[in-house]
Amino acid sequence: MKLLEFQIERYGAIKDRTVVFDPQCGLVVVYGPNEIGKSTLLSAVSDFCFGVPNNSPHGSVFGYDAIQLRARLRLSDGAELNLRRRKGRGKTLTDDAGGSLDQDALGRALGATTRERFLSHIPTPNKAMKRCWSKRAACQALIPASTSVAHSSPHCRANRKRAHLRFR
What we know:
Elements (H helix, E strand, L loop, with lengths): L1 E10 L2 E8 L16 H13 L17 E7 L5 E7 L6 E3 L4 E2 L2 H7 L4 H6 L4 H7 L4 H11 L7 H9 L2 E3 L1
Antiparallel strand pairs: 1-2, 1-3, 2-7, 3-4, 4-5, 5-6
């Protein structure tokens, strides 16, 4: 499954933002200044895939009933899906026309991936620091690789050219 486009209609403090992913890219690097929404984007993608938890902190601005996420996905067979996710207790996944879908519609594309497994594969500065708190040399190697500092290395600049991420 490839994420082609992700739209946050209302989530956290973000309203009406769309991220378009280049389908030819194998790597997407999200970087930017503090408080720009990088972690909120990660949480939104996770909540889209696995459902918005009942205790989500992301409804405090617009209201919990207003949480809305949308994605355009390409499946391994080439088929594209346009799906929406809202916060709720059941049938929170719908097609683009609003028809209710079972979680299995997305679950088949996710396979055995769980929320925990998904999040464990995303490098973040906090995870890098926790893993190597007592190993200063390792920290110095890991943290730049997982933060916006990484975009300054030649390898990451090359990946950044292939990984086009834009807010519009």
